[in-house]
Amino acid sequence: MAENKEFGFPIPKYDGHYDHWSMLMKNLLESKEFWEIVETGVPVLAAGATAEEQRIAKEAKLKDLKAKNYLFQSIDRTIIETILDKSSSKAIWDSMKQKFEGSTK
Predict the structure, then answer these.
(1) DSSP letter for each residue of 43-69
(2) pLDDT digit string (tens) for 63-81?
(3) What is the pTM of this model?
(4) Beta partners for residue 22, in sequence order
(5) Contact 86, 12 (CB under 8 A)
(6) pLDDT of 8-45, one tens digit each?
(7) Are 90 and 81 in contact (CB under 8 A)?
(8) Positive or negative, the Cα torsion across 18, 22, 25, 29?
(9) Which of 90, 97, 91, 92 is nearest to 37 (CA)?
(10) CA dist 84 to 64, 89, 91, Å?
(11) Are strands 9-11 and 2-4 parallel, antiparallel or unpaired?
(12) 20 contacts: CB under 8 Å, gap ≥ 6
């Protein structure tokens, strides 16, 4: 597992065992309060959004960026190359799930 010095605990690395990795990553993302954004995605602002809606959207984008950072740190470079076109943590999570769910080495 990769050591994250900032937080002092390891980030689970995907090692070919998707079910185990996804459980650990979900737990990590929930503990950081990022799971909801991974599960639901970043809300799209409607035209004429209020200042409060804009603030909430900005916070959601930051949470998404942080969640993506955790996901990128947990995935090997060869797999990252296959998901570089994914623009959100939800898209990355869904892609990993589609490709690897039920897989073991």
Answers:
(1) PPPPTT--HHHHHHHHHHHHHHHHHHH
(2) 999 999 999 999 999 999 9
(3) 0.85
(4) none
(5) no
(6) 578 999 999 999 999 999 999 999 999 999 999 999 99
(7) no
(8) positive
(9) 90
(10) 15, 11, 10
(11) antiparallel
(12) none
